[in-house]
Every structure is written in C-alpha cells, then in structure tokens.
Amino acid sequence: VRKINKNNTINVSAGVTFSENHATKHGGALYANGENAIININGTKEDVVTFENNYTETLGSMGGGGALFVGGNNTAELNVNNTYFEGNKVLETSTTNYGGGAIFVDTPATATIIDSDFQNNYSGNVGGAILGNGNIIIKAVHKDVLFSGNRQNATFTGTTYDAGSGTANAINLVNAGNLTLNTDSTDRTITFNDSIESTGGNK
Fold first, then answer.
1. How many CB atoms lie within 10 A of CB 47?
2. Nearest residue to 167 via CA among 117, 106, 125, 116
3. Could you write out the three-class secondary structure of 171-196?
4. How far apart are CA 171 and CA 182, in angstroms?
5. How far apart are the C-alpha atoms of 44 and 37, rounded to whole Å?
6. What is the pLDDT of residue 199?
7. Most-buried pick from 9, 21, 65, 132 (CB within 10 A)?
8. pLDDT category, 62, cuts 50, 70, 90?
9. What is the rounded CA–CA span in Å between residue 22 and residue 37?
C-alpha cells in the first residue's frame, strides 16, 4: 500500500491496474491522509485504471477502503476518472461506521468520481462499494456510470467472499457524509442496482 502524506500528490496514469494489494487497516492499494494529500487517478474512456481484488484485512480495528482510503480529520482529496473497481473488500465486521468495499471517504475529505464503475465489491460492515463520512461527488460526463453487485454486511472465509452473503448496497453515508450526483447531459445515466443508505449523512 502506498500512503500519501501531507502536501503530497500521487498521479496514477491511464491503463494502470492495482490488483491483490492489501493493508492491515486503511486503503488496500492507496491511502491519502494529511492536509492537502491528493490522489489523482487519470484513466481515460479508451484506457481505464483498474482496482481489482484489493482488501483491508483488519478485524475489529476500524478498517476501511478495500482499494482506496482518503481523509481522517483532514482535507485530503481524491479525484477518480474512468476507473473500474471490482472484487475489492473490507473484512471488517465488528466496528460501526467503518467499511467501504472499494473506497472509504472520511471527514472532511472530498472524493470526485467521474465516469467510473463499481461492480462486486464487498464490505463486512457498511458501504458495499463506498462508505461516505465526507463529501462524495459522482458524475457521468462521457459515459454512463454503473453500481452493481456490491454488498455490505458480507461474510468471508479467509479473504474469500461468501457468495450470497450480506445485502445489496452501493453507498452508505454516515455522520458527515454527503452525496451529489450529476450527469452532464440527458444522454448520460448513473445506474444503481444496489441501494444507497444514509445513517446521519445527506443524499
């Protein structure tokens, strides 16, 4: 896992794949924590960035963000363009308000996610694909956006998802979580085949 600290930026180029990375606590692949820590993921429609089968393994100690974690009482920033998230997991099962199978956005950080899909990501706690305790902006600009097959309250055998376990969930907003959805034209759609839930957040 690569941690991005205060006043540092990491830029991920088109075509890059993050696969089977893991962390013991936050952000299986990338973790931004610190004032003005920034992650820019720069996929294109023709050459996406992929996060697949990354996970956090912590049980009972506030694990979050199977692929990406951003925030933690600071103004970290995540910018995601044309990225595909599949099979990412948080194994956390016992701590309230922690999870996010693919991404955990903690307060007061902001994540802007454009033209990106989330399929078959799993959280042992809340937030099948995304857990939001910060600001989340999702946009469909040049392609449609899809959330499908994501599950929260899942169970695992080791690091393998127990098929059929948990409940369908795309995004779970908690506490300071805020969600904004935007399509730049009537030709674009954001499709949720999984639920959006809010426990104190805004949607």
1. 12
2. 125
3. EEEECCCEEEEEECCCCCCEEECCEE
4. 16
5. 23
6. 77
7. 65
8. low
9. 20
Closest to 121 (Cα-Cα) out of 113, 129, 133 = 129
Under a CB-based contact definition with an 8 Å cutoff, are residues 121 and 102 in contact? yes
Q: Dihedral through CA 29, CA 33, CA 35, CA 41, nearest 10?
A: 10
DSSP state string for 38-72: EEEEE--SSS-EEEES-EE--SSS--B-SSEEE-S
For 11, 37, 76, 104, the CA distances from 98, given in Å and listed in that order, are 26, 21, 18, 8
Put residue 71 in one of left, alpha, beta given phi > 0 → left and psi -120 to 50 → alpha. left
The whole model's pTM is what? 0.95
Q: What is the pLDDT at residue 200?
A: 66
Distance from C-alpha of 153 to C-alpha of 96, rounded to nearest angstrom: 11
Three-class DSSP category at 145: strand
- 108: cis peptide before it, omega within 30°? yes
Spatial contact of 96 and 62, defined as CB atoms under 8 Å apart: no
pLDDT at 168 over 60: yes
Residues 151 and 179 sit within 8 Å (Cβ to Cβ): no
39 vs 32: CA distance, rounded Å = 7
Q: Pairing state of beta strands 160-161 and 156-157?
A: antiparallel
pLDDT, residue 128, reads 96
Half-sphere exposure of residue 155, counting CA atoms within 13 Å on the CB side?
5
